[in-house]
Amino acid sequence: MEDNKTIPTWKQYNRPWYMRLGIAVWDYIKNVGLMLWSVIKAIPFKIWALLLGIGHCFQGLWFRLVHGDWRTKMSYLIMGFGCFSRGPKQFLKGFLLFAVEALFIVFMIFIGGPNLAKFGTLGETLQRPNPNGYGFIDGDNSLSILIFSVMTLMLMVFFIVVYIKNTKIAYDTQLRVEQGKPLSTPKQQLNYALNDGYHITVLALPLFGILLITVLPLICNILVAFTNYGRVDGVSHYPPAALFTWTGFDAFKVVFGDSAYGAAIWRVLGWTLVWAVFATFTNFFFGMFLAMMINKKTIKLKVLWRTCFVVVIAVPDFITLLMMANFFSYSSNTTLTGPFNKILQQWFGMTDTNIDWAGTATGSVWRARMFVIVINLWRGMPYTMLATSGILMNIPDELYESSRIDGAGPIRRFVSITFPYIMFVMGPQLITTFTGNINNFNVIFFLTGGGPTLMSDIGQPGRTDLLVTWLYTLTVNKGQYPEYNYGAVIGLFTFIITAFFALIVFNSSKSIKQEDTFQ
Amino acid sequence: MIGLRSKRIISDTAIYVILLVMVFVWLFPLVWMILKAFDTNTGISSITIFPKEYTAENFKLLFTDSNNPYGKWLINTFVIALISCVVSTLLILMVSFALSRLRFKARKKLMNIGLILGLFPGFLSMIALYYMFNQFELTDNIVGLALAYSLASGTGYYIVKGFFDTVPIAIDEAARIDGATKNRIFWQMTIPLSKPIIVYTILTSFISPWCDFIMASVFLSSPNNYTIAVGIRNWTTQTMVAEYFARFCAGSVLISVPIVILFLFMQKFYIAGITGGAAKG
């Protein structure tokens, strides 16, 4: 059933282009729907499989405990006992397992336990002034409790996995001894790490890094969405001076409810999507046409033309963006206004021209929005040009020649050959760019800083603020009272929006995988 | 025939004109920035478009003004880039090798999780990360920032894995038959065979700390520890721009030149990353 439906329908040449476009769009929406449905449908099975797996683990644990000899049974208490008690060959292995247990216990006693015990309340003791008169006696720190509790929970999962593995190893060793097989030597064990178990060796460090730097903070910050870490109803909850605690969905109710946030969030989402659409498609189409011009057979100095544009993206973007913000800067004094206005005045004779292009100083919403989109085009188009150039060079000449023989004009050739070919390669990339633009912090932050902020939305995000820049303003840039809890809610919301569009990528790249006919 | 040829000449001329205009529009602001870097009038406001008088004073001030130690920022960023480049390259290569060449149970799942992690806005996790690093006194510390940049770089396996996928698996199998361990295959076969993509990984991970602003601005607080991005960005704030804009331009030109040259080297990999990655899905 998949085959007929997922092939992009723009290839059905006998229909007019608007019908093909309509069908393609409809197919996209339908496929995303089906995809979402299949994901949702699979959830109960996934949970069931997970429960089954856990049950299986416990069954195994119990089985090995019952059938194990005393050494195996001992390794339920002292990890690695089943190894190091069976002779020097297994010392190293046993010792490593034991070391894991020892370290884990030490960690639990000094860090894990105390923090986890307070995880339910996120701390109750406030810091109090030192009776000697100097500084404070430390109380609980909710943030520290939260982070270390999550860390402890992650370590516990890791420990349980190693623990179960340990009983397996002990039992397997026991079986080998009973069957009279020789035990593995340290050399063989090392060989396992370099061969059959090499994926563990190679992935251990990168995974550790990802868990520590990305996953752990991410979980913590998601959990913050369910706390009052911020300033709620005029009361500050910033550790170490104050505590914060679990408040369930209160932060969600504020962000989506009847508040300054609720009033702004849909407006910001709307602009975020509009921005993402324009930023993506202007870059795509103009970049494509630029690439086609440069790659036209008869055009000379291709490399030179290309390089001129590539230079723009090669400069770090905070530099080009800050420079552009100043290039278009505005001053109410006509003679001291920014360079671009000067060019209009001096080169084009518009003597009195003094326009606030970025819209932030005069509060012009539409000028600000046009500005970020146009500068983003300046900044981003060379990327598409580069990518499309690569594709255009790969289109076989025969396609064009045979179409010319069939009497196809340049427009026809573009619609029927060039464009489908580019879309075939760039399609998934296009949606990735789209999700990237939803989270495009730099362009907005450096060009307008989210402004202009109108009189009517004091205390709300500005008119070019995206969800991410709003998140930044609420948390990092809020000064005295950062709203970490509301920021976390908005971050989660952004993730859901991005994930929705990313599903299309998975979906479309799957459909393209099935389509080998083009290659 | 003549009709066709003249038509072609017209269309080519039109394209040349459009391209010239576009190149002018695209490069003019950059040229303006370079000229501004030599301006004697150091603020953003001026009566003329181009500087009236030129001087190298702005470049000299970059290295002599002790309140704005550009030289120190340069060294900081270089050290961060170096550490982060070594660590990231190693981690990315390891992950890519595992996901491309080894077969194990959780492989598909790990790849999907990597993709999902990429969908969260980057600095959603920054506050907790900052706090964690703060506990170990790794904030306002260039080594700490370098670690924050690089330790989680394993998620950026995509392009390198795509390249590894194109190295024929038969080579690995032959080596296995000759008794080589997977470890040896990784270090002595896959890596030497993948030089271009390794150069690409090294360059991208070396360049990215020069371009990052957010993370650095959250992590670093004292001017002596700033990276270039944090440091020179201050010169464009509303209070500073009236006096320091020319110096911002000078500082930008100085770091942009090497980065542009590196980027021009890398552009073919960039294309391969997009076109190759998409086709493989």
Layout of helices and strands, plus pairs?
The complex is a heterodimer of chains A (519) and B (281).
Chain A: H1 2-6, H2 17-67, H3 70-74, H4 81-84, H5 91-117, E1 128-129, E2 136-137, H6 142-178, H7 186-194, H8 198-224, E3 231-232, E4 235-236, H9 250-256, H10 260-295, H11 302-314, H12 317-327, H13 339-346, H14 365-394, H15 397-405, H16 410-438, H17 441-447, H18 467-475, H19 484-514
Antiparallel strand pairs in A: 1-2, 3-4
Helix pairs in contact in A: 2-6, 2-19, 5-6, 6-8, 8-19, 9-19, 10-14, 10-16, 11-14, 12-17, 14-16, 16-19, 18-19
Chain B: H1 2-36, H2 57-64, H3 70-101, H4 107-117, H5 126-135, H6 142-150, H7 158-166, H8 169-177, H9 182-193, H10 195-211, H11 214-219, H12 228-233, H13 241-280
Helix pairs in contact in B: 2-13, 3-6, 3-7, 3-10, 7-13, 8-9, 10-13
Attribute tags:
heterodimer, A: 519 residues, MetI-like fold, two-stranded antiparallel ribbon, globular, disordered N terminus, disordered C terminus, B: 281 residues, 73% helix
Structure, explained:
The complex is a heterodimer of chains A (519) and B (281). Chain A starts with a helix and ends in a 5-residue tail after the last helix. In chain A, helix 9 (250-256) crosses helix 19, helix 10 (260-295) packs antiparallel against helix 16 and helix 16 (410-438) packs antiparallel against helix 19 (484-514). Chain A has a two-stranded antiparallel sheet. Chain A folds into three domains: 1-55; 68-248, no CATH class; 256-312 and 365-513, MetI-like fold, CATH 1.10.3720. Helix content of chain A is 68%, strand content 2%. Chain A is mainly alpha-helical and 519 residues long. Chain B has a single domain (69-280), classed as MetI-like (MetI-like fold), CATH 1.10.3720.10. In chain B, helix 3 crosses helix 7, helix 7 packs parallel to helix 13 and helix 8 (169-177) packs antiparallel against helix 9 (182-193). Residues 277-281 of chain B have low confidence and may be disordered. Classes of the chains: A mainly alpha (519), B mainly alpha (281). At the A-B interface, helix 6, helix 8, helix 10, helix 11 and helix 12 of A face helix 1, helix 3, helix 4, helix 5 and helix 6 of B.
